[in-house]
Amino acid sequence: MTTSPPVDLRSDTITRPDDVMRAAMAAAEVADDVLDHDPTMRRLEERVADLLGLDAALWVPTASMGNVIALCAHLERGDEFLAPAGAHVLSDELGAPAWLAGGMPHPLPTPITEDAVRAAAGGTRPYFDLRTTLLCLENTHNASGGTVTAPDRHARLVAAARAAGLRVHLDGARLWNASVRLDVPPAALTVGVDTAQVCLSKGLGAPVGSVVAGTTEFVTRARRLRKMLGGGVRQGGVLAAAGIVALQRIPDLAVDHENARLLADGLVERGWRVTPPETNIVRAEVPDAAATLESLARAGVLASPSGTGIRFVTHRDVSTVDIRTVLERIGATVAT
């Protein structure tokens, strides 16, 4: 068992604001965002809307709140919505889409195809068929190991949804990773959607915050829904300032992707069964996930369960040197 500090690869949500971000937070121009629309919050929202190619945007405390606000706006009670199996809105939001938005989830096999969207869109018999009204896409798709959806495939899925009469919400909590991986602007990955949500606290160092975006009319309604959910903030510029700094660090995600590939290659060399990473998530299949996680923890490496395997997530608080340390510790003490 190592006595050195563990290397924490459980999630990219554990990143901490550095001195530059903390200084921006301390110096932020603020006002009551509920009463007057905090000026720093406004700057952040306008910047994100521009990056996503959408009309307007709204800061929310969490990605889950951003998603449920969008679903509340799109769904009526009892409506069915489609989403890829393992999507965050299905597996990690504790039933909020059903509880708060009143939606009936319908998981689609991944990767989603246009045929699957068309087939699941539902019938028109009022007494027998659920009314399917929404497709929720996810980019990156994290249950599959941070896989990306390229612009052409995204466009085909949106077109299939439109042809079936569906609206489209994009859960882009890690859309920045997809943008960097594909070397395309974020707006290239939101074409045709009604709404999109992006996160500032996954890998970019902000301590809190996501942004949900869409039309001006949607954001007006979303602001009211945020208040109903307890998400209205007062001097929100302190938090928005962290988000503005975080946006400047999107290109840095390329380093996380490189470190993920380094980690994956090193694990393969040590006999692990690893899915080649597309972004910053490394998934490994192991015979006994609980036992492997315990062995890793004793060796000073923290990871998370993922289905029948485990996952490692690289982030800005873990350096290339740290990844090499992880491989040394695994090679010395952990067998699969």
In short:
The chain is α/β, with parallel strands linked by helices.
Task: Give the helix/strand layout.
Layout: E1 7-8, H1 19-26, H2 33-36, H3 39-52, E2 56-60, H4 63-74, E3 80-84, H5 88-91, H6 96-99, E4 104-108, H7 114-120, E5 132-138, H8 151-163, E6 167-172, H9 175-182, E7 195-199, E8 210-214, H10 216-228, H11 237-247, H12 253-269, E9 273-275, E10 281-285, H13 289-299, E11 301-302, E12 304-306, E13 309-313, H14 320-333
Parallel strand pairs: 1-11, 3-4, 3-5, 5-6, 6-7
Antiparallel strand pairs: 2-8, 7-8, 9-10, 10-13, 12-13
Helix pairs in contact: 1-11, 3-11, 4-10, 7-8, 12-14
Explained architecture:
This protein is of the alpha/beta class. The protein is built from 14 helices and 13 strands. The chain has helices spanning 19-26, 33-36, 39-52, 63-74, 88-91, 96-99, 114-120, 151-163, 175-182, 216-228, 237-247, 253-269, 289-299, 320-333, and strands at 7-8, 56-60, 80-84, 104-108, 132-138, 167-172, 195-199, 210-214, 273-275, 281-285, 301-302, 304-306, 309-313. The protein has a seven-stranded mixed β-sheet with strand order 2-8-7-6-5-3-4, sandwiched between helices. Strand 12 and strand 13 (309-313) form a beta hairpin. Helix 4 crosses helix 10, helix 7 runs parallel beside helix 8 and helix 12 runs parallel beside helix 14 (320-333). The chain is globular and about 60 Å long. It starts with 6 loop residues before the first strand and ends with a helix. The mean pLDDT is 95.
